[in-house]
Design goal:
Blueprint: H1 6-17, E1 36-37, E2 43-44, E3 67-68, E4 73-76, E5 83-85, E6 98-101, E7 104-107, E8 110-115, E9 122-130, E10 133-140, E11 147-155, E12 160-166, E13 172-178, E14 198-200, E15 209-215, E16 219-224, E17 227-233, E18 238-239, E19 244-245, E20 252-260, H2 268-273, H3 283-288, E21 291-302, E22 316-319, E23 329-332, H4 386-402, H5 432-437, H6 447-461
Parallel strand pairs: 5-6
Antiparallel strand pairs: 1-2, 3-22, 4-21, 6-9, 7-8, 8-21, 9-20, 10-15, 10-21, 11-12, 11-20, 12-13, 13-14, 15-16, 16-17, 18-19, 22-23
Helix pairs in contact: 4-6
The chain binds 2-acetamido-2-deoxy-beta-D-glucopyranose (6 copies).
Length: about 450
């Protein structure tokens, strides 16, 4: 099976277009000028130091900004007031529930994650982190070959618990988990895992289901509509070679996403897993202008342990050791906020209007990781995205005259146009979901221009 989480495609996307940002790995940490290693394995400042910043691959353990602790809450997407773009978010989880990358839309009191032609879709990540606990999401997936919907927990050291849905198979939820992003951890699964990771369901595009992850220090249970689909016990994950539990154990963000597994630029295994190349001329694209997944609500119930692991009684999580295991997580009081998109964990006030500290960040440091593109000057777009790219490029120019260091706050929607593979059409069995969406949604295709404007606004905020 492929390493099929969203990370795969996003890493592909960012590495294709981000040759200029330094890469980071466990053995090659970020340099001091761009100390923060993003979720996608590249170095930068600002948003690179917020959610997803991997302390093990960053310049120092204190390079990443501390992560807001868990908050028990139900998120109904009646409006998107508490969703903020990753080009604006500065770490204040009291004002923002979800950090977005792409083009989230509101429709009939639901959240739509959208994926317009030749875009890399939409990702929402919770601003707070769960250190064990229970999370439920009620949603309808997208559909069509190559189109992947996901609901996952992902920690900054890449522990991961997943639900993934490939649009070519609307009858199964695929489940998965990783310890520190190491695929081999799945080898430890024994016969206990007799569901093989796939849970059978009725049509996931036309029907809402409630997908639940119940995560304790001792087991993970995946439940759909309250029925147990899979159980993973920590006791089955011991790795005698490394003397570790290869079990997800560190604070994680909830991530909701819609992304193109079926892009020609992705690995062959990923494309095959996703059911083939995305059809950008499908019925959903023609009727609505995008693929979409429909989220009704998400409920987070924190674990509330009275002693570590799994507490959330202070304000933020940090790591005190490169091991990145449960016993190296500190539930403490470090600030989670930076003053601008050139701030870092060690220089949170950089770029503040008062100019209290001078930043180590160079004028060319990347400030918003991954999908937004490390090199907005490179235009890989087709057709209707060209407007947005020139906007983004203009913002970049402005930014560099400011020496603000913000070079990558450009459009996330449409910033990468790489797919366009054509192949046979996806499921045409039902149009009801598309019909329900209605014509009013067509306007969102203009979101790429909007994203350019966001870039300008983000610039002005600096
Ligand atoms: C980062 O890694 C990618 C993929 O291996 C490579 O194409 C790119 O050139 C690297 N970037 C740098 C700055 O080394
Ligand atoms: C948390 O704050 C303390 C006190 O200011 C500091 O010594 C420590 O380095 C910070 N930890 C991290 C991981 O940022
Ligand atoms: C143990 O961990 C090592 C290093 O990550 C990995 O290569 C190996 O496959 C793991 N063994 C098992 C049984 O999971
Ligand atoms: C789960 O379903 C996917 C897609 O149909 C398939 O590729 C995979 O082999 C299945 N996994 C198991 C363990 O049956
Ligand atoms: C936490 O980590 C320690 C040290 O690796 C280990 O002994 C313990 O079993 C872990 N606990 C959980 C709940 O993972
Ligand atoms: C944890 O505490 C919060 C706030 O007091 C509460 O809403 C939530 O239900 C608790 N979670 C559990 C699992 O007890």
């Amino acid at each position: 099976m492929v390493r099929a989480s969203i990370i795969a495609a996003l890493v592909t996307a960012s590495t294709v277009f981000a040759a200029s940002a330094p890469n980071c790995t466990l053995t090659q940490k970020c340099p001091s000028e761009t100390p923060c290693c993003s979720q996608y394995g590249q170095c930068g400042v600002g948003a690179y130091c917020l959610g997803g910043c991997d302390p093990r691959m960053s310049f120092g353990l204190d390079s990443c900004v501390a992560a807001p602790v868990c908050e028990s809450k139900t998120y109904n997407f009646n409006n998107l007031d508490r969703v903020m773009s990753n080009t604006k978010y500065l770490g204040d989880s009291s004002k923002t529930d979800w950090v977005s990358d792409g083009n989230p839309q509101q429709y009939n009191n639901n959240l739509l994650l959208t994926m317009a032609p030749d875009s890399v879709g939409t990702l929402l990540a919770s601003s707070t982190y769960m250190w064990y606990g229970n999370v439920k999401a009620t949603f309808k997936t997208s559909r069509g070959q190559g189109v992947v919907t996901a609901f996952i927990l992902l920690s900054d050291v890449k522990d991961e618990i997943d639900y993934e849905f490939v649009g070519a198979d609307l009858a199964h939820a695929q489940t998965n988990y990783y310890f520190q992003g190491i695929p081999e951890c799945r080898l430890t699964l024994t016969a206990i895992d007799d569901h093989g990771g796939n849970i059978s369901l009725s049509d996931t595009f036309n029907n809402f289901h409630t997908y639940e992850i119940d995560w304790t220090p001792d087991q993970v249970t995946w439940k759909v509509d309250t029925q147990i689909g899979r159980t993973l016990k920590r006791s089955d994950t011991w790795n005698a070679t490394t003397n570790q539990w290869m079990y997800p154990q560190t604070p994680a963000r909830v991530q909701l996403s819609l992304w193109p597994g079926g892009l020609a630029s992705n690995g062959e295994g990923t494309i095959e897993w996703a059911g083939g190349l995305v059809d950008w001329n499908s019925a959903d694209i023609k009727n609505n202008g995008y693929y979409y997944a429909t989220f009704e609500s998400v409920t987070v119930d924190c674990f509330n342990a009275t002693s570590a692991p799994g507490t959330n009684d202070k304000t933020s999580y940090t790591y005190n050791n490169l091991a990145g295991t449960n016993d190296t997580v500190v539930d403490g009081k470090n600030s989670t906020i930076i003053k601008s998109l050139i701030g870092t964990g060690t220089d949170p006030d950089a770029g503040a209007p008062s100019g209290s500290s001078s930043s180590a960040a160079s004028a060319t440091a990347e400030t918003v990781p991954g999908r937004s593109g490390e090199n907005p000057g490179t235009d890989n777009h087709a057709g209707d995205n060209s407007g947005s790219s020139s906007q983004a490029a203009a913002s970049t120019a402005t930014a560099s005259t400011d020496a603000s260091g913000s070079t990558s706050t450009g459009s996330s929607n449409g910033q990468f146009s790489q797919g366009g593979g054509s192949s046979s059409s996806s499921s045409s069995s039902s149009k009801s979901g598309a019909e329900k969406l209605g014509a009013s949604q067509e306007k969102v295709l203009k979101g790429s221009v909007f994203a350019g404007i966001i870039a300008v606004v983000a610039m002005m905020a600096l």
